[in-house]
Amino acid sequence: MRLDVIGSGSEGNAYVLHNEREALLLEAGMPFKKTLKVLGGNVGKVVGCLVTHEHGDHAGHINEVLSYTIPVYASEGTIEGARKYIKTDFQPKALQGSDGDFARLLIGNFTVIPFATKHDSAQPVGFYIWHEETGGVLFATDTFYLPYTFAGLNNILIECNYDEGILQDNVERGEVLPALRERVRRSHLSYTTCLDALKANDLRGVNNIVLIHISATNGDPLGFREGIRAATGKRVHVAKENLSIHFNKTPF
Ligand SMILES: [Zn+2]
Ligand SMILES: [Zn+2]
């Protein structure tokens, strides 16, 4: 299995998890033609698309995905919030089961377990994904805190949005307004909170940690990568357009 990054950050998010036979899309925040290119035009192998929340950088291109009749999965709140983007008769599917709770899904050969995250949107979620080739994958973005730990992790995509010190300097220099600082703190994962969340988990089986949604103004991609690598001893990547890596249960 490979992970391809189409885009990561406030300009637009989209990731592809795929092998020769099947593909799972994460987020719909980038023009779909870029995803098509990564798929080599093979839309037929796409089993679904998971969307974490309705903000434009995650759901702004949801209509293009739906227009290919790709099943899109999101929470009821996200689907409501993304209404303005949806022009197709083919509608997204709600993550909630008949009891209103998030249900475990089988999408192709991917088992997907949604969990609630903490962000300034209607009903944001993250996903724990399991596939025979990837093992356990954590996908957590746009959350100021990660209130869970996960068993059997092999690969991780986690937000590492800002550094508290850089954010504070930007406020003092007048480049970030104090109100925006408060919004960032209540909606995105800081470097320190990201590291704490990683350390709370058993990382022994983890092959890759991919840092996603790094802020262009309040982040430090290379510093974050070095810091997380030193603290975890793991292979750490910074997500950016065109990053393409092996994403397997085994280290190769
Ligand atoms: Zn975002
Ligand atoms: Zn957001």
Outline:
The chain has 252 residues and is of the alpha/beta class. Helix content is 24%, strand content 27%. The protein has a single domain (2-246), classed as 4-Layer Sandwich (Metallo-beta-lactamase, Chain A).
Describe this structure in words.
The chain has helices spanning about 30-40, 55-60, 60-65, 75-80, 165-170, 180-185, 190-200, 220-230, and strands spanning about 1-5, 15-20, 25, 45-50, 70-75, 95, 105, 110-115, 125-130, 135-140, 155-160, 210, 235-240, 245. It has one domain (about 1-245): Metallo-beta-lactamase, Chain A (4-Layer Sandwich), CATH 3.60.15. It has a seven-stranded mixed β-sheet. The longest helix has 12 residues, at about 220-230. Helix 7 (about 190-200) runs parallel beside helix 8. By secondary structure, it is an alpha/beta fold. It is globular, with a radius of gyration of 17 Å. The protein has eight helices and 14 strands. It starts with a strand and ends in a 6-residue tail after the last strand. Helix 8 (about 220-230) links the parallel strand 12 (about 210) and strand 13 (about 235-240). About 25% of the residues lie in helices and about 25% in strands. One zinc ion binds near residues 53, 55, 119 and 142.
Please list the strands of the largest sheet in the order they lie side by side.
6-5-4-3-2-1-14
Bound molecules: zinc ion
H and E order: EEEHEHHEHEEEEEEHHHEHEE
Helix content estimate = 10-25%
CATH architecture: 4-Layer Sandwich
By CATH reckoning, the class would read Alpha Beta
Largest sheet: 7 strands, mixed
Radius of gyration: 17 Å
Count of individual helical segments = 8
**What number of domains?**
1
- Give the distance, in angstroms, between the N- and C-terminal Cα atoms: 10 Å
Supply the CATH superfamily name.
Answer: Ribonuclease Z/Hydroxyacylglutathione hydrolase-like
**Which ranges are low-confidence, i.e. pLDDT below 50, for 5 or more consecutive residues?**
none
Shape: globular
Oligomeric form of this entry? single chain
- How many strand segments? 14
Class by alpha and beta content: alpha/beta
The CATH topology name reads Metallo-beta-lactamase, Chain A
Determine the strand fraction and express it as a percent band: 25-35%
Nearest-integer average pLDDT: 97
